[in-house]
Design brief:
Length: 135
């Protein structure tokens, strides 16, 4: 069974230095590179509140943690990310598949985003959204 999470969050945003002069018309130029993905059982038990955090790790890069994202155990985790220039947002889409282990926990997801244009963006993943500043 494949469970595909394609969830977007909307909300207020501010954009100060993000370049809007060249709107994305080609999906190849809209994508953000996602790497170093992990999905592990968290230590907070079931019923935790999902928390999204991001830290800059150099020019155009963020490390992201999504704690207590959802219940699971040992899925294969993949993600894609795209710019949404019109909304000043980076949308992250998760795919969690093959979660057939015999256990249940709150999943903690972690990954790195690269190739982000400098500016203030909203980072949207699952039902969560935060503001991030990228240099």
């Amino acid at each position: 069974m494949t469970l595909l999470w394609t969830l977007l969050a909307c909300g207020d945003f501010t954009r100060d230095t993000a370049d809007t002069s060249s709107e994305c018309t080609d999906p190849a130029t809209c994508s953000v590179t996602v790497s170093a993905l992990t999905a592990e059982c968290g230590d907070t038990g079931l019923g935790g509140t999902s928390t999204l955090t991001a830290e800059p790790v150099g020019s155009g890069s963020l490390t992201v943690q999504h704690m207590d994202f959802r219940e699971g155990c040992c899925p294969t985790f993949s993600a894609t990310a795209n710019f949404n220039y019109g909304e000043g947002r980076i949308d992250v889409y998760y795919s969690l598949t093959d979660d057939s282990c015999n256990c249940v926990c709150e999943l903690d997801l972690a990954y790195t985003l690269d190739g982000i244009r400098a500016g203030t963006w909203q980072l949207a993943a699952g039902f969560d959204q935060i503001e991030v500043v990228v240099e």
